[in-house]
Prior knowledge:
single chain, 411 residues, alpha/beta, Rossmann fold, 2 domains, eight-stranded mixed sheet, six-stranded parallel sheet, 33% helix, globular, binds flavin mononucleotide
Amino acid sequence: MSALQSKRILLIIGGGIAAYKSLDLIRRLRERGAKVRCVMTHAAQQFVTPLAAGALSADHVFTDLFDRQDEQDVGHIRLARECDAIVVAPATADLMAKLAGGLANDLASAVLLATDRPVLMAPAMNPKMWSHAATKRNRATLAKDGVRFVGPGKGEMAESGEAGEGRMSEPVEIADAVAALLAPPAGPLAGRRIVVTSGPTHEPLDPIRYIANRSSGKQGHAIAAALAKLGADVRLVSGPVSIADPAGVTTIHVESARQMLAAVQSELPADAGIFVAAVADWRPAVEVGEKIKKRAGEAPPAVEMIENPDILATIGHGQSRPWLVVGFAAETENLIDNAAAKLKRKGADFIVANDVSHDSGVNARGVMGGDRNRVKIVSKDGIHEWPEMSKTEVAERLAALVAERLRTITV
Ligand SMILES: Cc1cc2nc3c(=O)[nH]c(=O)nc-3n(C[C@H](O)[C@H](O)[C@H](O)COP(=O)(O)O)c2cc1C
């Protein structure tokens, strides 16, 4: 049976070009057995009509906070409660900002503030709006407040011939994400909270330059997805990557090592921590406030580096240490010796060691950025060598190992 069978979905349609796709979303949700009721913002009605949304949902469409008829019995509070989940599609920059700021000056924002139901947002906007610092801040705040996100994806923008990140997910993907949101937690990791880090960190030199590494986030994201599939409540703290947030996972986006540590700490306590991110060991000692200028005749600037916080060691030896701590070690030499030393030094239960040297033979592109991996699992019980496999398979096997370790623990 579909996870959406007989579920009541309140669909808030925001004022973006992608509103036309929300009409199809109504159909996709209903064909899986959901009952759909729509709220449309005033801006949304510039793009699609309440008549179309009403005909497709077979229900009244709500548009006005001060509607005498609907508000006789405080309709906005009823709308917020008489549903199993709220989906905002398209989630405009404006709606995200309103909810992040706690505003409630129209029907959509009042409903969002008054609800205690799970909220899923499908953002859609111009890539410049999506990458604006204000939108990034709002997204991070909303994720922290428990709002789930699906997309946006990359591609052509409908309105301008521009391309980039900001395209609303397809209706079928949004319907899948709603189903994942409402599926009863099942699986061996149901009820477990697991923090995962993924991707590189960016360490700023000045407002436009930074020091980074080649980590793509593929392995960490795959692990987060595999843990979520086993029922875990996964908090993924991701450095800057160009891959999509995994479905069914709460993703918190950060840039630097210091931000990553703070985000991890604010997600604790957790049952397990899996530290996959390639965190920069050092950062420039000074972050210059203005762009460092190239001046004729002057020598290139010297960059003094200082040590970054060690996230794995801080958490592994910390007071709020998760019951299970897993670290990753990307080594180019003395793989096993270095991993075994790291196990002790960092207070980890497992180190997943991968050889990122050029001649590791995994594939021509190497482990970082590639799709395959060959790892060794180092623990106090010894070393287990896993054969070369895809990063998804490594993730599934590691998730099973985590589930096995947590099976007997009641925290
Ligand atoms: C043609 C056009 C297309 C727009 N597309 C988007 C969009 O895709 N995403 C977005 O966040 N805002 C978009 N906007 C701006 C919003 O419509 C505007 O911020 C509006 O106030 C949003 O209201 P709402 O959040 O209440 O729906 C667009 C505006 C116009 C005129």
